[in-house]
């Protein structure tokens, strides 16, 4: 799948899509949802939050289980991320270079 360069001018919300329970993007929140928010104290950084009923949002962090597997969890310490623009003009999921 080739992805064109674009700028997201509007917020994107992550929801659980029923009945399959897949995570899907939507232009508006529906009940409980995930959202990417800009962090005030982390220059150029973002965090993922989970919002219940569209009002109370809590940070999503990472927990490492006894088996060494990292899982996303509701946590008071957010998992901080920085998005970097791709350097190639075309991106493909099937590119094996």
Structure description:
- The protein is an all-beta fold and 97 residues long.
- The protein has a single domain, classed as Trefoil (Acidic Fibroblast Growth Factor, subunit A) (Trefoil), CATH 2.80.10.
- Helix content is 0%, strand content 40%.
- It has strands at residues 13-17, 22-26, 33-38, 46-52, 56-64, 70-74, 80-81.
- It is globular, with a radius of gyration of 16 Å.
- Pfam families: Kunitz_legume.
- InterPro entries: Kunitz_inhibitor_STI-like_sf, Prot_inh_Kunz-lg.
What topology does this entry show?
Elements: E1 13-17, E2 22-26, E3 33-38, E4 46-52, E5 56-64, E6 70-74, E7 80-81
Summary of the model, kept short:
The protein is mostly beta strands and 97 residues long.
How many domains?
Answer: 1
- Rg over CA atoms, rounded to whole Å, is 16 Å
> Might you state the CATH topology name?
Trefoil (Acidic Fibroblast Growth Factor, subunit A)
The number of E-state strands comes to 7
Derived structural class: mainly beta
Distance between termini? 15 Å
Give the percentage of residues in beta strands: 35-45%
Nearest-integer average pLDDT:
72
Indicate the CATH architecture.
Answer: Trefoil
- The ordered H/E elements are EEEEEEE
Low-confidence parts? none
How can the largest sheet be summarized?
A: 7 strands, antiparallel
C-alpha geometry: globular
Helical proportion, percent range: under 10%
Number of helices: 0
At the first level of CATH, the class is: Mainly Beta
InterPro entries: Kunitz_inhibitor_STI-like_sf, Prot_inh_Kunz-lg
């Amino acid at each position: 799948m080739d992805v064109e360069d674009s700028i997201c001018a509007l917020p994107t919300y992550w929801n659980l899509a029923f009945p399959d329970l897949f995570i899907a993007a939507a232009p508006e929140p529906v009940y409980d949802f995930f959202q990417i928010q800009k962090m005030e104290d982390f220059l150029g950084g973002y965090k993922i939050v989970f919002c219940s009923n569209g009002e109370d949002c809590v940070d999503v962090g990472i927990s490492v289980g006894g088996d060494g597997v990292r899982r996303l969890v509701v946590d008071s310490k957010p998992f901080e991320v920085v998005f970097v623009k791709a350097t190639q003009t075309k991106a493909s999921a099937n590119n094996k270079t």
